[in-house]
Design brief:
The complex is a heterodimer of chains A (331) and B (505). Chain A is α/β, with parallel strands linked by helices. Chain A contains 11 helices and 12 strands. The radius of gyration of chain A is 26 Å and the shape is elongated. Chain B is an alpha+beta fold and 505 residues long. In chain B, the strands form 2 sheets. A 5-stranded antiparallel β-sheet of chain B has the order 1-10-9-6-7. In chain B, strands 2-3-4-5-8 form a 5-stranded antiparallel β-sheet, sandwiched between helices. The chains are: A alpha/beta (331), B alpha+beta (505).
């Protein structure tokens, strides 16, 4: 009967082995990647400014920080709310919303899902689970305003706003202050398209500014609408200042510089914080020149001498130190 | 089935189970291999799509920045290339809902890209190309995610595969161990059980228990044959022992009957023999050693009164036991008859007459005849202190103060065929003194063999025995003779009837 005992022993031994194997099977997919969801604003990808910049920040984070991300745009989800809900249902660790037009939607959804962490870029929302990042667009606009003030020949420059909303007003105020700081006699024509996704409207406004007011440098801060404006400016062989990202490549003989809003930097650093600390701690982050959140793209197309460069640098210093203040509602 | 076949089957069963398990493992592994191939194929296609999309995006970017006809052609080429690489999406297999959704995203986005591309190519619009180029980053991310998911699935699958292989290996090892042990155990038991039974059976038989039940044999192997042989052997043994028992009983019965008749024969013989009290009357001193080998024997002593003296004889008839006893009765009655016919007859004449009578009685004077029997005898006629001796192969030892004298006997026996019918026996006469002792002995004493060298006691030793004990009384001599013979015989059995008669007148 010792044979039975040996067999029993072998069976017990192998059962232990097998149970060991099973436990090793279950310990899989431990290090799940952090997933970021992004709801794109307005026109979505391809706007060459806002959305593309934020998106490139995410791509950089994906490639360098090992996160994964998904995105939604209005072309597929119809509404911001729907897009945000889809991203929440996709188990994103952090959901990023972009642009002024999303404020209502993201606020509503954030209150519905208080355990979901949100990041809103380009504005300030006071909801506990939303971290806002806003840019000191006035600082950036001030710099391009200085360039425009120095370079205008007709002493008339234009500003096209996408909508008459606080963010765009910051663009406008910074730009006007910059122009007036170096060229007090210069005239700044301001107009609004009331739409961030209507290039045709942008085109018309630009044409009107050039033909009716002899404006020779126009600064459209109107997202996708601005692209129409830049095309028209290029057609009229005047100069344009890009916005949000370096828009030189849209019209290489026209765009002298761009007010860079480094959404990519903002997005990347926010994602990095999430990767390193697990969540975003601050409720509101404001990025200016000193934080590399805004700035001017390299000056191209027109000559810009050393004296002018020195002036630009000193004024940049001053606006950073707040020795020059941006005038609200300046005309 | 033969034992050899059973053992072979035993090992073959294990090998067969092992083969089954091996086949199962191989089939499983081939299955895994195919899945892995499919997986890597899909991964490759996704990778190809990705690089096609990247190339297309670059081409669009180039055209956006530098809207030459060459770049436009490049856009068209890369676009076609990308489209070709998307066909597999129509029949791609997905592992989960997430992938399904992702694939749908990619398909939809490719559709949008198609529309936008048509606009770019038709209008040769570089800004649109630039925008489309940025848009493609979106689909690239979807492809990235799909790729990631597929890779994760592949990793998971590989890990599971490895675990499964390990699991299957261990499980199959265990199953093999278990099943083959079971088969071995069953077959071994089947083989060993009848052997154990047979062992007990044979032990029973060996210890003599033949009433043990026979084993029923069903198998045809060697053990079965052996069992049948054992059964057969048991049957034979039993029969044999029964027969022996029966024979033994018969023998015992016959033996008892023979013993009874012999005991009766002894009574008869004893009544024929002269009573020892007669010797007491005849001699002043005497001793008699009369040891028959069996219940009855061929030795006898005889005495008979004559007119003036008396006859004394010691004889040894042919053989011993019952034939000897028959001869003694014949001889004694013949002697009695001879003396009664002539009460003054000389000893030699007695012997001659005895010879005659025995030959006649046994029909030994003619050549035909079954027997050749007779007797040796020493006969003395004693009158006063005068002794006349005649001997047929039995000597007379005379001991006195001068020593021991052996009176030579005649070298012919009585009654035998080689003794002539009218053989003349000699006789010798002498007178005794007070110290004279006469000894008569049959050959039983002298021819008795001893344990050393198987020599017989011998005449010389007998004479020495007489000489040594010459001065002792005859009673003491009897004890000495007894003890000397006993010492000489050791463990040897008595060979013949022994008679020694010593007397003084």
């Amino acid at each position: 009967m010792s044979v039975f005992r040996i067999i029993c022993f072998c069976l017990c031994f192998s059962l232990v082995l097998i149970s060991g194997c099973n436990s090793s099977l279950s310990s899989e997919s431990d290090n799940k990647n952090i997933k970021i969801g992004m709801m794109l604003a307005d026109y979505g990808l391809g706007d060459q400014s806002f959305n593309d910049a934020a998106f490139s920040g995410l791509i950089k984070a994906r490639d360098e920080l090992g996160i994964i991300f998904d995105y939604r745009d209005l072309q597929t989800t119809e509404t911001y709310e729907q897009g945000l809900i889809e991203l929440i249902e996709d188990d994103c660790d952090l959901i990023i919303g972009l642009g002024f037009n999303m404020i209502d939607a993201i606020t509503k959804i954030a209150m519905q899902y208080p355990n979901q962490q949100f990041l809103f870029i380009d504005g300030k929302i006071d909801v506990p689970n939303i971290t806002s990042i806003s840019f000191k667009e006035d600082e950036g606009s001030f710099i391009v305003g200085v360039i425009a003030g120095l370079k205008t020949k007709t002493n008339t420059v234009g500003f096209i706003g996408g909508m008459d909303i606080p963010v765009i007003q910051k663009f406008r105020d910074g730009f006007i202050t910059g122009v007036k700081t170096v060229n007090p006699k210069a005239k700044v024509i301001v107009d609004y398209a009331h739409d961030f996704g209507a290039p045709e409207v942008g085109r018309q406004i630009a044409r009107k500014m050039i033909i009716e007011h002899q404006a020779d440098i126009i600064y459209p801060a109107a997202g996708y609408t601005g692209l129409g404006a830049i095309e028209e400016i290029a057609d009229q062989q005047k100069y344009a200042i890009g916005v949000d990202s370096d828009q030189f490549f849209l019209a290489e003989n026209t765009v002298i510089t761009s007010m860079m809003k480094h959404l990519d930097v903002a997005v990347f650093s926010a994602v990095k914080t999430v990767v390193e600390h697990g969540s975003l701690t601050e409720n509101h982050i404001e990025l200016g020149i000193s934080e590399d959140g805004v700035g001017a793209a390299p000056i191209r197309v027109i000559p810009f001498n050393d004296k002018e460069k020195a002036l630009l640098n000193s004024l940049t210093e001053k606006v950073m130190n707040r020795t020059i203040s941006i005038q609200k509602d300046a005309r | 089935m033969k034992l050899k076949t059973k053992l072979l089957f035993n090992s073959l069963a294990s090998i067969f189970v092992a083969l089954l398990i091996l086949t199962y493992v191989i089939v499983r592994m081939i299955g895994m291999q195919q899945t892995a191939n499919h997986f890597s194929n899909t991964l490759l296609q996704v990778e190809q799509l990705n690089s096609a999309v990247v190339s297309y995006q670059q081409a669009l970017d180039n055209f956006g920045k530098n809207s030459t006809a060459g770049n436009l052609v490049n856009v068209q080429t890369k676009y076609q290339d990308m489209l070709n690489k998307t066909y597999f999406l129509l029949h791609i297999s997905y592992n989960n809902e997430e992938e399904k959704k992702r694939i749908n995203f990619i398909r939809n986005k490719i559709k949008t890209i198609k529309k936008d591309t048509e606009v770019v190519i038709e209008e040769e619009n570089s800004v649109k190309a630039k925008m489309l180029s940025s848009k493609i980053f979106g689909v690239m991310n979807d492809i990235y995610l799909l790729n990631l998911s597929l890779n994760q699935q592949y990793d998971l699958f590989s890990k599971e595969n490895n675990n499964q292989i390990l699991y299957i290996s261990i499980m199959s090892g265990v199953i093999l161990l278990f099943v083959s042990s079971m088969i071995n155990l069953i077959i071994t038991r089947k083989i060993v059980k009848p052997i154990k039974l047979l062992n007990n059976y044979s032990k029973n038989i060996a210890s003599g228990n033949l009433s043990v039940h026979e084993i029923q044999v069903n198998s045809n192997d060697e053990v079965g044959e052996l069992t049948r042989s054992f059964n057969f052997m048991k049957g034979n043994l039993r029969e044999l022992i029964d027969k022996i028992k029966k024979n033994a009983a018969e023998l015992r019965e016959k033996n008892e009957r023979i013993n009874d008749s012999i005991i009766y024969a002894k009574r008869l013989q004893d009544s024929i023999f002269a009573p020892e009290s007669q010797l007491q009357q005849l001699f002043s001193e005497y001793f008699l050693i009369f040891k028959q080998r069996d219940t009855v024997g061929g030795d006898f002593f005889w005495c008979k009164h004559a007119e003036k003296g008396f006859y004394i004889a010691v004889a040894d008839c042919t053989g011993h036991g019952v034939p000897g006893a028959l001869m003694t009765t014949l001889s004694i009655s013949a002697l009695n008859q001879i003396i009664e016919e002539d009460r003054n007859i000389s000893p030699s004449a007695v012997l001659e007459s005895l010879n005659h009578k025995i030959k006649k009685a046994l029909n030994q004077e003619v050549k035909e005849g079954l027997t050749d029997d007779g007797l040796d005898i020493a006969l003395c006629y004693i009158e006063g202190n005068k002794v006349t001796y005649a001997g047929a192969k039995v000597a007379l030892y005379v001991s006195d103060h001068t020593g021991v004298t052996v009176l030579k006997e005649d070298r012919k026996s009585i009654g035998y065929r080689r003794t002539p019918l009218n053989y003349r026996f000699t006789e010798q006469s002498f007178t005794t003194t007070e110290s004279t002792t006469l000894y008569l002995t049959t050959d039983g004493f002298i021819d008795q063999n001893g344990c050393e060298n198987d020599q017989s006691f011998g005449k010389k030793r007998f004479v020495e025995l007489i000489e040594i004990n010459q001065t002792s009384s005859l009673n003491e001599q009897k004890d000495r003779f007894h003890s000397e013979l006993k010492q000489f015989m050791g463990k040897e059995a008595q060979r013949d009837d022994i008679t020694v008669l010593a007397f003084k007148l």
